[in-house]
Design goal:
The protein is built from 7 helices and no strands. It is mainly α. It has one domain. It is elongated and about 75 Å long.
């Protein structure tokens, strides 16, 4: 059996096990609720697609397929990081949106403070931080796991045979 495929499969088994544990603990639902932009699920979708492509490369064990797809997989890994950072910026935009202007108006307005408006500001802050942290974490983890797959594939490949 193909040694690269076995190493790749071991990693995938751990990823599936971790995803199952996350589901059991309710983290997928928490992620869905925390990330209002749903960028995290775009990142996860890219990761699943690229993982399938890595598996295809391992199963086929074909030099041409590896050479044609290597750059795309490395690009996808970097794209996951970039999408995580875009989610971070979106989260901070949520966080700092119009909350400060509303807070300034509340504090300037009168001697009584509208508690409902303050609660809405706190909710906006919480949502913004949730988006920023979840997209960043999702991008980092998915990118790292994709890079690990490529290291497994590229280090197991016999490039001397490819160049001859």
């Amino acid at each position: 059996m193909n040694e690269i495929l076995v190493r790749w499969w071991i990693q995938i088994v751990f990823v599936i096990f971790g995803a199952t544990i996350f589901g059991y603990m309710g983290w997928w639902t928490a992620l869905w609720e925390a990330d209002q932009t749903k960028i995290s699920f775009l990142i996860i979708s890219i990761f699943v697609f690229i993982t399938g492509l890595c598996g295809y490369i391992c199963v086929r064990n074909d030099d041409d397929i590896l050479i044609k797809n290597t750059n795309y997989i490395w690009f996808a890994s970097e794209a996951m990081l970039t999408l995580g950072m875009i989610g971070t910026v979106a989260g901070f935009m949520f966080l700092f949106g119009d909350s400060f202007s509303v807070l300034t108006e509340i504090l300037k307005g009168s001697e009584t403070i509208d508690t409902n408006a303050l609660l809405n500001i706190i909710v906006d802050f919480t949502n913004g931080i949730g988006i920023a942290l979840t997209t960043t974490l999702t991008g980092l983890v998915c990118s790292l796991l994709t890079k690990l797959q490529m290291v497994i594939i590229e280090n197991g490949w016999n490039y001397d045979e490819v160049q001859e």
